[in-house]
Amino acid sequence: MRPLSELADRAARLRGVFSDIDDTLTHEGVVVVEAYHALARARAAGLRVVLVTGRPAGWAEVLASVWPVDAAIAENGGIAYVKRDRRVERLYFAPGDPDDDARRLAALSDDVLRAFPFARRADDCGLRITDVAFDIGEMQRLAPAEIDAITGRCRELGARTLVSSVHAHACFHTADKAQMAARVAQVLWGETSEDVAEHYAFVGDSPNDQAAFAFFASSIGVANVARYAEALRPPPRFVTPSSHGHGFAEAIEAILSTH
After folding, report:
1. CATH number, position 132
2. 121-138 burial by CB neighbour count: b if 16+ within 10 A, else e?
């Protein structure tokens, strides 16, 4: 990972920023004031801004409606809410049968809870549509072996899994943060996938950002990404001096300083 100062050569060509939320904009579950100010400054300066999170669809719909952003992607790419003509529209990565998906996810969740006494659904599961999440670091902190047990069981049941700093996710869709970022940019701005990879930055911190770290040429990790550095293949190309939302603010400042 290269220091953020080396982003300068690329920053002037950037049209916008895609950003994770948990432990990227937040610290200990609360949005860092400097991070929100930086996000608002980026939008006011003409940059396009999209949130990309493992959090639920219900969160993303609200964030897309009331935050100074162009869209919010949720559930690690399974669903997004895009703002067009002041209206917020739902966008599925892979439209299918939501009722069938809900039944399959409920059955998987019940199986995991029966199998492992330490397993607990994330508190935001009632707002989810395309995945289910288990709490590994939000209201409880699980050991790596316990996380591996949960994700391993989910895969045995036919699901894909992703792990963030707070949740272990299981889903039956094939999306990831990078694919849905490209889809949103195409829908909103007519961008090609190649344009998105080259002309947008992504800021994140954890393993469920892996696809985005690989896709975006200007991928940025806030400093706390270092705890996952050995597991990321590849890690982000650049890293901020500071952690969490303070690091996000540094990333935005580095970009705005060239515009």
Report:
1. 3.90.1070.10
2. bbebbebbbbbbbbbbbb
Pair (6, 79) in one structural domain: yes
Please count the other Cβ atoms lying within 10 Å of the Cβ belonging to residue 145.
Answer: 7
Whether residues 188 and 61 fall in one domain: yes
Q: Is the CB of residue 49 less than 8 Å from the CB of residue 42?
A: yes
Angle at 159 between CA 156 and CA 163, to 5 degrees: 100
Q: What is the pTM of this model?
A: 0.94
H helix count then E strand count, the chain: 9, 14
Which pLDDT value is given to residue 112? 98
> CA-to-CA distance for 239 and 3, rounded, in angstroms?
5
Domain that holds residue 142: 98-171
Segment 107-147, tens digit of pLDDT: 999 999 999 999 999 999 999 999 999 999 999 999 999 99
Residue with tokens 């299981």: 170
The one-character DSSP state at 59 is H
Check whether residue 106 and residue 158 sit in a common domain. Answer: yes
- If pLDDT is split at 50, 70 and 90, which confidence band does 74 have? very high
When divided into structural domains, the chain yields a total of: 2
